[in-house]
Amino acid sequence: MASRVLPYPLFDADNHLYETREALTKYLPEEYRGVIEYVDVRGRTKIAIRGHISEYIPNPTFDKVARPGAMEEYFRVGNPEGKDRREIFGKAMDSIPAFREPGPRLELMDELGIQQTLMFPTLASLIEERMRDDPELIHVVIHALNQWLHETWSFNYKDRIFTTPVITLPIVDKAIEELEWCVERGARAVLIRPAPVPGFGGSRSFGLEEFDPFWEKVVEHKVLVALHSSDSGYSRYANDWEGGNREYLPFKPNVFRMIGEWRPIEDAVSALICHGALSRFPDLNVAVIENGASWVGPLVKTLTDLYKKMPHQFLEDPVKVLRRQVHISPFWEEDMAELADLIGVDRVLFGSDYPHPEGLADPVTYVDELKGLSEEDKAKIMGGNMARLIAG
Question: In angstroms, rounded to a whole number, what is the distance separating the alpha carbons of residues 369 and 332?
Fold first, then answer.
């Protein structure tokens, strides 16, 4: 149950579902059946992508999951005892219907005091990076996932749960086709990986003019673009420092790699600004989810300095672009008032990351961290801003 009832509606910008085994396989065309498999490894089920076992998600069946909010103490006070992740997570729980289906989830939302939410898949974040050398395959697998998401959750469940289909961008025409398919079925927001876009000739920025036909359709349909934390492929750069060819493992932290943990989102937002996409499409709204806000201040400072020295390199003031179109859901332990000063309170979004262990067990307690803000501003952050964005 929620610890209290707030005097304004809550729109949580960051909720998650847990996929079933068939999420990535049910709608795969026959010729792609072996691309994704669940295999037994010494008594534990793992997911294999094109024959390569991935440890990205330790338990990809999600039959057992970490308790919601299991890491709250870790983020609040740190880890003075040096516990490992298993100790921090504590005893796992059985996955419940509310993590798998929209009906039970709506009942749980009522208990938690959440009126509306964006609902993100969990397993989806491993797909694109592990198929980056085969753009056609990425589009096939993403569409299969979206078919499952629509069948199981719908993209708009009773105007309360807005599940985000995934849009992958390697082949622009196919990306537009996927977007149209999702919008026809009620999608109000889409999930795009904050990473360079793989392609037949190498990767490139989604801020380049090549992608303008896609962004034009996004604006036409008034769809919100969510840049959610994912595997953005930056482990390749860390591997250059540490040697080997290690997979990105979010649940096995590495202090050196955590130094640049938010570099992917900083680069993604910078690409949309510096390569001009947000200026060419000033009505394009972007929501940065589960990437924190520690990178925002340094980016504002850098953009300010670059614009001062090289204004001719930008279509317009890049900081104004950031403050006009980029909305950010900070982690609950960050300074919300400081972020509101940087980008404007209308661009700050409440996101609990429920039911992930890194999130909040009682999402309404996010409001306790909005120190120094008026009740009007709290109402905007806790729901008003997101409701405006999803309405188009």
Answer: 6
